[in-house]
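Page 37, continued from 36.
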């Protein structure tokens, strides 16, 4: 493309749900601002979505129900993929890249699970595959990791990276609401995935975590090796006990680099109430990134929703537009997966990690039970930091224990031994505690 001749950038949008519709609206609503920043107009020339009613999308010359009409439209410079899922999203992105079009996608599952197939195609055709909106909604975390922190060796990052899950935990904690009731509201607000199990079981967060870790540590995308635990087993009781101990429960994605390998894990986590991260509520997301030069930095903002996510989609369009206007052959967005900084590095098994733990044990209200439990913990080299013993309910008494740091494998052995005690009812509830390298 000859930059002199560019009057406007031509965009085609595939998928007009929450994010695609939000992108269309944002490009219209902020067009003066965007034109002033970019130096030319961005025009949506083609759109496609299932059951499309063209009358609802004024000013678009091509409106279709077949998404491949956008991909094969010669007028389109940049394809926005906001379909979600894999089919037909993978083929849409693959064909668009092969047709020499830049692609902007909000599809975290696609990038995390099939990005390693798509980036080489982008590279081969000298086009860009941009995905800022795939992680943490409106927060420019990809840009921060890739550009702002490029001078650092990133040692760890941890974040609330699913808006739906955070909204649920916040509402349960603040108003004692039921899990299912809040989930329904998150769906109505357009926060949740089409299959909300992806949100509450931590899969969505694992997608996002594996993308951030790949950029931060210069390692391959490793979604399938990410340990994933959801929030559906967290009860209002756990939230209250954690609060009594000075903690909030958040669903965190944690990635840590060590001499032994890399930890990639998503699970509910107790965080001290004093931490900023513990106070990121509702649909908010936040990521703490620790670089060896800069120390800890925090990025926070809305993690889901039409406008917030569209903000990141449009930022990617503008970035690509700037590169096009500058006449760059390859946009200045290094393709994820090509920056291998450390080659093969093992992903540690969850049993190898070291953490502090919250344990909730339902025991018989009998003399000596607490002594037996602490004895078993001691036998497995686990020391106790705090204990709360609640009033007995019928014959059962909830015992809540906070441990010092322990190796998870030993903790699991201790839990198995505690569950075997005659005086203990049912399974022990275990939630990891994160202190971010300090209290
Ligand atoms: N379902 C996702 C969330 C949408 O709740 O965070 C944004 O990726």
């Amino acid at each position: 493309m000859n930059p002199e001749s560019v009057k406007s950038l031509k965009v085609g949008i595939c998928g007009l749900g929450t994010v695609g519709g939000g992108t269309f609206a944002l490009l219209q609503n902020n067009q003066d601002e965007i034109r002033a920043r970019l130096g030319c107009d961005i025009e949506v020339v083609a759109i496609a979505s299932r059951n499309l009613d063209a009358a609802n999308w004024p000013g678009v010359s091509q409106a279709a129900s077949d998404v491949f009409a956008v991909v094969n439209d010669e007028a389109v410079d940049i394809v926005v993929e906001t379909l979600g899922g894999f089919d037909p999203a993978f083929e849409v992105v693959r064909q668009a890249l092969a047709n020499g079009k830049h692609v902007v996608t909000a599809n975290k599952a696609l990038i995390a699970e099939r990005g390693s197939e798509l980036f080489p195609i982008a590279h081969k055709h000298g086009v860009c595959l941009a995905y800022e909106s795939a992680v943490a909604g409106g927060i420019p975390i990809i840009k921060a990791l890739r550009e702002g922190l490029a001078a650092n060796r990133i040692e760890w990052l941890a974040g609330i990276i699913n808006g739906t899950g955070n909204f649920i935990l916040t509402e349960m904690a603040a108003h004692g609401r039921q899990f299912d009731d809040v989930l329904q509201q998150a769906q109505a607000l357009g926060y949740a995935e089409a299959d909300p199990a992806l949100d509450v079981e931590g899969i969505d967060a694992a997608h996002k975590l594996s993308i951030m870790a790949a950029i931060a540590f210069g390692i391959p995308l490793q979604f399938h090796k990410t340990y994933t635990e959801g929030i559906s087993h967290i009860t209002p009781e756990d939230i209250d006990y954690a609060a009594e101990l000075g903690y909030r429960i958040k669903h965190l994605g944690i990635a840590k680099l060590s001499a032994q390998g890399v930890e990639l894990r998503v699970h509910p986590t107790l965080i001290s109430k004093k931490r900023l991260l513990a106070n990121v509520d509702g649909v908010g997301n936040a990521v703490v990134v620790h670089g060896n030069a800069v120390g800890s930095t925090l990025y926070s903002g809305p993690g889901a929703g039409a406008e917030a996510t569209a903000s990141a989609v449009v930022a990617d369009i503008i970035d690509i537009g700037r590169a096009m206007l500058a006449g760059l052959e390859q946009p200045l967005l290094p393709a994820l997966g090509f920056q291998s900084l450390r080659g093969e590095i093992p992903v540690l098994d969850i049993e190898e990690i070291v953490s502090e733990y919250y344990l909730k044990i339902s025991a018989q209200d009998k003399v000596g039970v607490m002594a037996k439990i602490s004895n078993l913990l001691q036998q497995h080299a686990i020391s106790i930091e705090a204990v709360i013993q609640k009033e007995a309910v019928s014959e059962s008494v909830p015992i809540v224990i906070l441990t010092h740091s322990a190796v998870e494998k030993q903790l699991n052995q201790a839990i198995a031994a505690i569950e075997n005690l005659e005086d203990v009812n049912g399974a022990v509830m275990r939630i990891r505690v994160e202190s971010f390298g300090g209290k």
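The mean pLDDT is 93. Flag for discussion at group meeting. The two ends are 55 Å apart (CA to CA).
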